[in-house]
Amino acid sequence: MATSPLFEPVRIGTVELPGRLVKSATTETRCTDDGFVTEELIRYYEQIAAGGTPLLITGNAYFDVYSKAAPRQLAADSDDKIPGLRRLTDAVHRHGARIFLQIYHVGRQALPRLAGRREAVSASAVFEPALGVRPREITQEEIQGVVRGLAQAAGRGKQAGFDGVQIHAAHGYLISAFLTPHTNRRTDDYGGPLENRMRLLVEVYRAVRDEVGPSFPVILKINGSDELFLRRGLGPAETVAIAKRMEEEGIDAVEVSCGHYESGFPFERGRWKGFFSTVTTIGIGRHLPWYHRYAARALAPILDRALERIAPYREGFNLPYARQFKMALSIPVLCVGGFLHKEAMEQAIAGGACDLVSVARALIADPLLYRHLQEDAPGPKCDFCNACYARGASWPVDCYNEAVRQERDHMLARELGDSVALGVLKGRRQELR
Question: What is d(CA 291, CA 270) in angstroms, rounded to the nearest whole number?
Answer without folding.
Answer: 27
